[in-house]
Predict the 3D structure of the following.
Amino acid sequence: MANDEDDAAGQPPAKIDHNSPYFLGPQDRPGDSITPVRLNGDNYDNWANAIRLALRARRKYVFVDGTITKPKPPCTEDDWITIHSMLVSWILNTISPDVKNTLSMYDNAQALWDDLRERFSVVDGPKLHQVKTDLARCTQAKGMSIGMYYAKLKILWDELNNHEPIIECQCGRCTCNVGKQHEKRRADERFHQFLMGLNAESFGPIRSQLLTQVPLPTLNRAYQNTVQEERVRGMTAGSETPDILGFAVKTDGRAYGRGTKIDKTGLVCSYCKYTGHDVNSCFELKGYPDWWGDRPRADTKTAGRGKGIPKGTGRDKSMAKAHAAVADTILPQEPAACDKTAGTPLPGFSPEQWQALITAFGNPQSSSGRMAGPSIEEADWNG
């Protein structure tokens, strides 16, 4: 008997299978940071979700959620202490120093996990109400892409899962697949939430098309179709030529209603001996133009322009000053050519299009018709 006990005491401990949650490998160290998310007091939901994923990946979450509360063979009491010490170290490594200083000493990972949840987890009622309110108000703003809009919804849906998890059978004897039914109902609800928030102006037709399908497509299929529609609209918008709403004409130094002032102050007329013009533009020699206001009256209708008018008569000395005034006036230059041979003032317009534009606005009357009056050969209209 004594020999049997000595033999049992001398046997090596049973090995723990590497797939067992009790297993700790050489890669598991107390200083490891299992997630980059740090608990700072305001981000408990995100932090808890990150820790949950990291521990499940290592098959260790069962020690903090209450699934395993005491050691089972082949795990010994020493193994149990080792595992919880490792889990406590991992959790503390993901907590900010300010929060860590407020914590007590723990040697059990489940006790630490429950304490953090009670202190930092927001009450489900107000938090759940806020998440559902944000979901109801989540819409695709003008100019927002489908990807950005879907990302906003996805964040809210993931947060809602933390407060309203999928209903699953607890007894283990359910044959009606209540979990699958609840999951299908939630998927349909999210499908409608996605369509409701779409921009009606841009995606109204594709939304109607998706809603009329029987059975309803999945959320992923709806997302794929709307993204394809967005890309098609983008290609179409890039190939379309925008309507011409207005235009401006800029010519090479010339414009309607503008001209170049010609300085003739140094000229002397050889006919009337006055300055400000030359003999080629002398009104006393050539005759006064029709647009000149108080011009000399002709004695007869047969008198030629400028003939039969004595030099210096018909006007006082102020008449001579008119030559200088006329000489200093701005002589209008011809506008930019817009006939068929010279092209069009606007680039991109064909001569036919430019002519049609002129015809649509109507041709203005000629200036000669508006400024018509009695010539020097005619009797004055005023009698």
